[in-house]
Amino acid sequence: MAEILWNKAGDPLMAFGRTYFASTTGAPEIHDAGVAEKLIKPFKPIEELDNTETFESYTLSPWGMANDFPVKALDIIARTGVLNTGLKFIRNFTLGQGIFPTRVTGYNDSGDEILQIVNDPKITSFLEGRIVRRYMANAFRDYFKLGIAFAELIPNPDGSAMAGISTINGQHCRLTQAENGVIKNCIVHGNWPDPPVDPFKVIPVLDNYDPLADLVNRRISGKTAGKSFVYLIRDEWGNEDYYPLPAWYSAYRAGWIDIANQVPAFLKKAYANQITWLWHVKIPYAYWDKRYPKSIHKDEVARMAMIQKDMDEIEGSLTGTANANKAIFSHYAANASGKPEEMWMIEPLDNKHKEGDKLVTSAAANSEILFSLMLNPNVLGAGMPGGTYAGNQGGSNIREAFLVNIANAWLDRQNILDPIEAYLAFNGVKDVQLRFRNTILTTLDTGTGTTKKLS
Predict the structure, then answer these.
(1) pLDDT tens across 181-193, in order?
(2) What residue segments make up the domains of the chain, in order of their start?
(3) How far apart are CA 270 and CA 252, in angstroms?
């Protein structure tokens, strides 16, 4: 019997049976203009959700199939050393040495900006203060870990000006389903994915197309007093409309993160449980019959204790760092036929467990994870895939990789600066651009180990 999937109008969409698959092509003919009008849906810039969740009176877009993506993502990051370190490294070099206000007055022949520093103590104090530094550090954290950050703009009591900016912990945020293509609210709760009803907070989300214009319009309409607003910061390389996947997730889907975690777990189990025999010492029975004749040792227990003592001494002579490359001597005699009697044989055992092979696999997994982050593994001393951890190629390679990282950080930096610039513009600060300070590694022949750059 065929299984048929129908649409709401009763038309078959596709069918499948034991030996065939069928699908419907074209469009059903519409005779009723009213029905046709209902079937034509208006264009929406936000994707329709396959599943939603209801929390209180709000319809939510779940973050992941079980609404638990942040929980799983943060657990993966915490368990994967190279991923955790790589993400923190990206956060730190993207943050640079802070930001400063400037005006772009022109460009030189090389195309570089000609900057005029804005010496406004109030603006400078705000940008160099803990509030902005903490906002940027936490926003970069969630942006790189989860693919999205939730900046919170906080007006003064009457809503006429901005008084603060912060980052809401991303794992506590969920977005409501878009209405007419617009995401209106962010639900903040400390116990997702299965929160109790109380307490929670509903914060309006600014329009993604022009958040500043949306904020100004709300002030004109008298809707900013006593409220704060979420300014979404998303890495929109992913095409997801609600929660873009972070860049590192491709390495997880490919299995490299699992491999990176399995190698140390395997080695830990192996070291705890493996049999590490290195030598096989073969001693003929005739040797013990001559060394401890049964006829002399009437007490079998005492004879066995003496043999055990000799065996312990043999093991002590073959093992331990103090006995490395140490020789052992034994004597034997030949019988009438010329064959040796009572001869010891000491054979090295082939250890099938090769730790070095696992470390090569681990190095490859680490490199693939760093590639997903657009990090040159040499910067962290990881070498190339298949190589060892000592495979970095010197200081010049690391310096060049670091410069490439900074050059690629421009878009991410602008995304994090957007809420700060909206904050300043809302407060009447005009014609001010924000730039980052960077410390650049140089060679010793330049007379200094570092130099300051602005970007």
Answers:
(1) 899 999 999 999 8
(2) 3-39, 53-257+409-454, 277-348
(3) 25
